[in-house]
Amino acid sequence: MQELVILDFVTLENVFLVLKLAIVLVGAIVVDQVVEGAIKRYSRRIGLVEHIENMFKVIARIVIFVVAITIILPIFNIDTGVILSISALSGAAIGFAATQTVGNFLAGLYIMISRPFTVSDYVKIGDVEGQVREITVNYTKIYMSTHNIMDIPNRQVLDSRILNYSKKDIVDYTFRIGFPPTLPGNITNAKLIENCIAPVINSFYDRHKKVFIKKLEVTIATDYMGYMGSVGLDRLQRTFALRALFKERDINAFYELQPELVNEIIKSWDKYSKKVVKDA
After folding, report:
1. Is 175 within 8 Å of 219 (Cβ atoms)?
2. Which residue among 26, 225, 238, 275 is buried most deeply as judged by most CB within 10 Å?
């Protein structure tokens, strides 16, 4: 009786089913290995961090698994309609309940692929400014001058204006310093630079050459984002732009030195303005 059951199972039709199943499984394994290798090469080429690379691998493996199951079910005459309907309803419910998460996830993938910035870049995203420390599928982590980490949802990142100050490993950063619009003795902008700002910059650079790639440059400020436009003179203050170039690895030193430089310029201005008033 047992031999009859075995013989009844080992039919030509069942052999073909097993062969089809084996072909699909082997094909899925081969495709998984090929895709994994392609993701690894692409990640190395664009410099993706390891956890992002692993995330792409997991997503690819899930897709391959779903496709393989979809192919296997009809082989055994299993109706895929019910399974697909349940999957669709489940996916819709999960998607509706996690719209924000899914949006951040897709935005994170777009940021990783389009690369408007990379880890260690110094950026301004909306009103948040600092060094990019990590890009995850949900958040972009920014290390600010307060030495705190700000987590910005990736959807918000894509909806914001992005200004990237970095080129390779060099940060080309411009910040501003303001003076009263009406100065004693009718001090011109040129005299203000010559007597208050330039001497401080020269002395400051001599003391901190290890941090700054070259001496800081000073100009009359242009408009908000650094594009040519309105001059740095209004009813409230005269504004000057200071341009600093430094290595991305020296971000902590820059965070400490920037307020120090501004403070020295303010002290220089106080001393110079008092001298002008006294000599007038």
Report:
1. no
2. 238
CATH number of domain containing 134: 2.30.30.60
Report the candidate in 261, 250, 259 with the shortest Cα–Cα distance to residue 143.
250
Q: In whole angstroms, what separates CA 139 from the centre of its chain?
A: 9
Dihedral, CA of residue 29, residue 30, residue 35 and residue 37, to nearest 10: 110
Q: Does 6 score more than 70 pLDDT?
A: no
Evaluate whether 55 touches 11 at the Cβ level (below 8 Å).
Answer: no
Domain containing 129: what range?
117-164
d(CA 244, CA 250): 12
| Residue 146 in tokens | 């307060």
> In the chain, how many domains are there?
3
Strand order in the sheet with 139-143: 149-153, 139-143, 128-135, 122-125, 162-164
